[in-house]
Amino acid sequence: MYTTINEDGILNNYAAEPQMYYAEYPAIWEQRKYVLQSLFATLIVTTLVLIGFSVS
């Protein structure tokens, strides 16, 4: 942890910053997984909205 002290004696603590890295483009199997997840999420949201309309 990185700490500084100003002229009034007040401490400032700074968190350690993690190493930065560039993200890699997802592989084709990861892209397919994201598509399936989005379809499933869309199905759940649509179902909930339709249930909400039907009970109101």
TrEMBL record:
Keywords: Membrane, Transmembrane, Transmembrane helix. The chain crosses the membrane at residues 34-55. It holds the Pfam family Psb34. InterPro entries: Psb34-like. This is Ssl1498 family light-harvesting-like protein. It comes from Nostoc flagelliforme FACHB-838. The lineage of its organism: Bacteria, Bacillati, Cyanobacteriota, Cyanophyceae, Nostocales.
